[in-house]
Amino acid sequence: MMAAQPGNAHRLRHFLTTEDLSGGAISEILDTAESFISVGEREIKKVPLLRGKTIVNLFFEASTRTRTTFEIAGKRLSADIININTSVSSTQKGESLLDTVRNLEAMHTDLFVVRHPLSGAADLIARSVPSHVHVVNAGDGRHAHPTQGLLDMFTIRRYKGDFRRLTVAIVGDVLHSRVARSQIHALTALGTKEVRVVGPRSLLPAVVETLGVSAHTDMAAGLSGADVIIMLRLQFERMSGALIPSAGEYFDLYGLTRERLALANKDAIVMHPGPMNRGLEIASDVADGPQSVILPQVTNGIAVRMAILARLAGASAAEGRTP
Ligand code: CP
Questions:
Q1: Does residue 143 have a pLDDT over 90?
Q2: In this structure, is the dihedral angle defined by the CA atoms of residues 55, 76, 34 and 296, taken in order, positive or negative?
Q3: For atom 5 of ligand 1, which residue has the closest CA?
Q4: Tell me: the pLDDT tens digits for 244-268?
Q5: Ligand 1 within 6 A of 177 CB?
Q6: Are 232 and 281 in contact (CB under 8 A)?
Q7: Above 90 in pLDDT, residue 183?
Q8: CATH for 146-293, among 1.25.40.10, 3.40.630.30, 3.40.50.1370, 3.10.450.50?
């Protein structure tokens, strides 16, 4: 479910997936994010756009980057942010997801940021909340991670410019990756010249080509001439059995080493949504090397999440005014 009006990103009610967003709607959000970058560079990193609004971070799954950057984004917009620690909340006593939400809603929450291990959890909450309450999907099962998808688009646009000239390779465990799904929808909506997924057959979705991407099981073919390489973690927690022979063999065949990176265009950028497993999908000297933009991705997440919160919770920034 996506309450977006294509081309009218400012009319978003919830932000649950990148699936129904047009290229124009994505570009509008990225433009708003661009206007928020300067807030993070000021001495006083705060604007009053969401003063008086209450945002609840409701994370039922571990997170370092997403939870923290949503908290920083909300605080920079002057909202009140509450982090619910689900390991000590009443869900441990059997309270249902929707009852937890209804109780938090009774405390006058304006916006929920939800991460949940089950696909569809954020959508379920979005269907149950009253019309003045907004929901952002911060990752649901293997379904979608739309704010990560958009911060990745923001990063690519900043470093590489026009998507219509780019070849992007998404490498690794695409099958279990909600990030890859959100990236693929956004990249195709933005008119990317070529989107490739690269990995062992056992980790590529069976019908991935129907999403408008080409599939490669050979790393050299997948990386050749790429402008952007996005490495993905092996998501063992979502695998129902062993889908790779061993970690060592996986790195030998699909790990991003300096030698393999040299197959891509010489100014290619290397991305990773994190968390990263060094020596498993990526070599340390590549992760920390001059072509890596992995830490700028994290920083960009603040401005992109500010843009999404501001657009949902209603703010002058939604009309394109520089804060
Ligand atoms: N990329 C990402 O979702 O990271 P976290 O799990 O740390 O939030």
A1: yes
A2: negative
A3: 63
A4: 778 889 999 999 999 999 999 999 9
A5: no
A6: yes
A7: yes
A8: 3.40.50.1370
Tell me the CA–centroid distance for residue 275 and ligand 1, in Å: 6
Atom 3, ligand 1: which residue's CA is nearest? 66
Look up the pTM and report it.
0.92
Q: What is the Å distance from ligand 1's center to 66 Cα?
A: 5
Residue 68, ligand 1, Cβ within 6 A: no
- pLDDT of 270-299, one tens digit each? 999 999 999 999 999 999 999 999 999 999
CATH number of 23-144+299-318: 3.40.50.1370
**Closest by CA position to 230, among listed 302, 301, 181:** 181
Please say whether the beta carbons of 224 and 263 come within 8 A. Answer: yes
Mean per-residue pLDDT for 171-185? Answer: 97
Taking only the tens place, the pLDDT of each residue in 126-137 is: 999 999 999 999
- Are 118 and 92 in contact by the 8 Å Cβ rule? The answer is no
Query: What amino acid occupies position 301?
Result: G
Tell whether the torsion through CA atoms of 10, 16, 18 and 20 is positive or negative: negative
Residue 274 Cβ < 6 Å to ligand 1? yes
Cβ of residue 65 lying under 6 Å from some atom of ligand 1: yes
* Domains in the chain: boundaries: 23-144+299-318, 146-293
